[in-house]
Amino acid sequence: MSEVKRRSNTRMVPFPSDAIVPERDLGKTPVLEARHLGIQFGGLKAVDDFNLTVGPTEIAGLIGPNGAGKTTVFNLLTKVYEPTSGTVLINGHDTKGLDVAHTCRLGVARTFQNIRLFDKMTVEENIRIGLHNSIEYGMFTGILRLPGYWKKEKQQHEEAMRLLKIFNMQDMADVRSGSLPYGAQRRLEILRALATGPRLLLLDEPAAGMNPKETEDLMETIVRIRDDFQIAVMLIEHDMRLVMGICEGICVLNFGQVIAKGTAEEIQNNPVVIEAYLGKGKGEAK
Amino acid sequence: MAQFLEALINGISLGSLYAIIALGYSMVYGIAKMLNFAHGDVIMVGGYIVFIVLNNMGMPAALAIPAAMLVCVALGITIEGLAYRPLRQATSLAVLITAIGVSYFLQNAAQLIWGANPRFFTIMNYGNIPVSLGKDQFNISVGKLCSVGVSVVIMLGLSFFTGKTKMGKSMRAVSEDRGAAELMGINVNRTIALTFAIGSALAGVAGAMLVGVYGVQLSPTTGAMPGIKAFTAAVFGGIGSIPGAMIGGILIGVIEILVGTFISTDLKDALTFAVLIIMLVVKPTGLLGKPIREKV
Amino acid sequence: MTTSKKNTLITLVTLAVVTVVFLICQVGINTGAPWMTSTLKGQLVNICAWIMMAVSLNLVVGISGELSLGHAGFMSVGAFTAIIIASWLKRGKGMDSSWLRFVISAVAAVGISGLLGFLIGIPVLRLRGDYLAIVTLAFGQIISNVIRLLYVTVETDTGALHMALKLGTGTPKLSGKDVIKGAQGAMRMPQDSTFVIGFILVIITLIVVFNLTNSRSGRAIKAIRDNRIAAEAMGLKVTKYKLMAFVTGSALAGLAGALYGLNQSSLQAGFFEYTKSIEVLVYVVLGGIGTVPGSIVSATALTILPEVLRAFSEYRMLIYAVFLILVMILTNNPHTRMFFRSLRTRIFGRTDEEKRRDRL
Prior knowledge:
The complex is a heterotrimer of chains A (about 290), B (about 300) and C (about 350). Chain A is an alpha/beta fold and about 290 residues long.
C-alpha cells in the first residue's frame, strides 16, 4: 500500500486532554466533540459515556464487533436519536434539541449502512437533493420559471457534474439510482452526502459489499475527498485493511462503551481490542 | 340523567355492532396488510341473505343468520382468491383500488339482483325492559342488549382462537412476518383465506344485526357507511388489535350517540370523525396499537 | 436525452395534445359535428374539472406519496366558495361580466381551499400511510357534513350576504334570497363556467404541477417520498415540503371545484362525499401513479365511459367495476406484468433504461 494512503506520517497529539487529534489540527476548533454521550432504549444502555474528538481534517474510524453500537453512535451524532445523556458539539455548536435536518445544515452529512437512496430519482437528482440548501430558489420561482430558476438549475447541474466526476460517474447522471449496481449506489450515497457541503462526513460501512479492487479505490478517494474539500471524515467499517490504512484516530466500541482509542498501531496491539474481537481464549492462544 | 344513561346504553350497543365489523377489518388488515374496502358490502350481502331466508323462505332467524354467515364466508373466500390473491406482491395502493372495485361490484350486483328498494326485517322482537330511575323512565331494547353480549362472546372467542390454537398462532405469525412464516412451513395463502373467512362470517352476523336489530333499511349501499365508521373504530382502537377493535368500536358508538343526543344530530358524523382525528394526531397508532420504530 | 430535457418534452407534448383536443372540440361545437352529442357537450366542462382533480391528486398521491381520501372535500369547499361569491357578485352587487365574476370567485375558492389544506395538513401530515388515508377521509366527511348545514342568503337591494350554520332543530331564518339552503344545497347560481375557461384552468393546473415537480421544491417532495429518513439527513424540511404538495393540491382542487360548481344548475354537499374522492383516486391509479398525462387520459376516459356504457344501461356500473378490478390485476400481478414486458420487448426491443442496466 502506498505511503499516501497509509498516512503513517501523521503524528497524533493529545487534545483537549482526554482525546487525540492530528497534529495539524491542533489549535483549531474540533469539528466534532462528543462528551459523555449516552442513550438508553428501555433499560438497555445502547451507548454509554461515549467521548470523542475529531479534528477538522481528520479521518477517524469507529470500529467494534457487531452490535457494539457503532450505528447508534452515528444516529446520536446526526440526531436521529436525542441522546439521553451528554452533549454533541459540531464545530463548537451544541446540537441539543436540534432535529436531523438542522444538524445536517450545521455541517454533518452521512451515508447509511443499508443504502438509502432516492430510488425513483436519477443519479443527478439525488445529488441535487444534496445541493438543496446551498443552491436555493423558492417554490414560485420554480412554478413561474423566473430567471432565477434557469440560473440556479444550471448551477445545480454544473455542481452535480463536478461532484459526479470524483467517482467518474458523469455518464450515469440520468440513470435511475435504484437501478445502479450496488457499489455505484454506495459511491452515489457518498457524493450525495458530500453535496450538502459538510464539515464532517460520516460513512457507515462504505466498503461493505465491495471487492478488494473497489475498496482500494475507495480508500484513495476518501483521502482525496478529505484533501480536496478539507473536511473531516469519520467511518464505520469492518474491513480492517481500509480502517488501518487510512484512519488516523481509531475508536473501538464494544457493548456501547469505548474500550480503546488511538492510532492504527496502538489499536492493533491493544490486548483489550484483540479480546473484544476474538474472545478471550482465542486471544490468548494467539 | 336518565337520558344520559339511555344514550350511553344505546351507544354501547351500537358500538358493539361497530366492534363486530371492526374486528373483520382489523384482522384482515393485520394479516393481509390491506384495507378491505369491500367489507362493508359483504355486510350488505349478509343482510340480504337474512332477508331472503326470513321473508321469502319463511325460516326462523336461528337458521337465517347461519345461512348469511355461510354465504358471506363463501363470498369472502372467493373475493380473496380471485381479486386479492393475484396482487399479493403489489403495492398497497393497487390492492386498495382493487378492493374499491370489488365494493362497486358488490353494490351494483346487489342492485341488479335485489333492486334498489329499501327492505326491512326484524330478527329479535323480545320487547323492551323498562327502567325507572327516580322520576325518569326509559326502555332498553332486549335485542340491542343481546348484541352487546354477542360481540363480547365473539371477541373472547377470537382472542382465544388467535392466542391458543395452532391456526390462530399461524395467523399471528403471518401478520408479524409473512416471509418468515412461510419459511417456517405455514401456508400463507390458506392463513389469509382463513382470516377472510372469519372476517366475512362476522360480516354476516353484522348484516343481520344492522337491519334486524338496529332497523337500518336494507339497500345496496347499506354497508358503506357502517363499514367506514367501523374501520374508523378499528383505527381508533389500534388496527390489528382484537381488544383494540372492540374498545374502538364501543367508543365510536358511544361518542356518536352522545353527540347525536346532546349536541346535534346533524353534526354527529362530523364530531365523531373529529374525535378520531384528534385521537390519531395525539396517538398516531390508535389506543392499543403498537408504536412502529423505523430502523435507521 | 437528459432527464430534465425529457421532462420538458413530456410537458410540451402534453400541453400541445390538450390544446389540439380542445381546438377539435371547439370546431366540433361550432360546426355542429354529429360526434359532438349534446351529452358530450354537457360533459366538457366537467371533464376539465375532473382532469384538474386527477392531476392535483396525483401531485399529492403520486409525487408526494401521501394517500389522501379527502380530495373531494377541497373541491366542495372551492365549489361552494365560488358559488357564494359569484351569486353575491351577480345578485347582490349586480356585476354583469361573467368572466370577471368567475375570476374573482375562483381566486377566492383557491384561497379558501388552500388555507383549509394548510390548516388540515399541519396535524394530518404527521401521520403515515393508511392512517393518513383514514384521517383525510374523515376530514372530507366533516367538510361535507358542515356544508350540509350551511345556509347562505343574499339581499338583492343592499348586497348584504348572510350566513348561518344550522345547529339544533330549527332552520336558520335569514333575510334575502337563498343561495345555499342546507342539505338542499345551492341553486340558481350563476353558471359562469365555460369550456374555454375550463381549458385555460386545465392548462394552468398542468403548468403548476409540471413546473413544481421539475423544480428544486418538487425534487425535495419526491425525495421525501422515496426515503424520508435520507431526505431529513440531507437537511430537507420534511413538513414544509409535504405541506407544499398538500396545499398546492388542495388549492388546485378548490379551483376545479369553482369550475365544476359554476357549471351546475344545482349542487348538494352530499355530492362530494368520500366516494367522490375515491373516484378521483381511481383516475389517478388507473392513469399511472405519478404520471400526469396518464391522469388526464384516465380522467377523461372514465368520465365518458359510463356515458358510453349507457347502451348496457343497468349493467354499466357492474362492467365498470369488473374493468377496474381486471386492470388492477393485469397491471400489478407479477406474472401478467412479465408477460406484458416480454410482449413489449418482442415488439419494440429493449428500452434505453434496460439497455443501460445491461451495460452496468
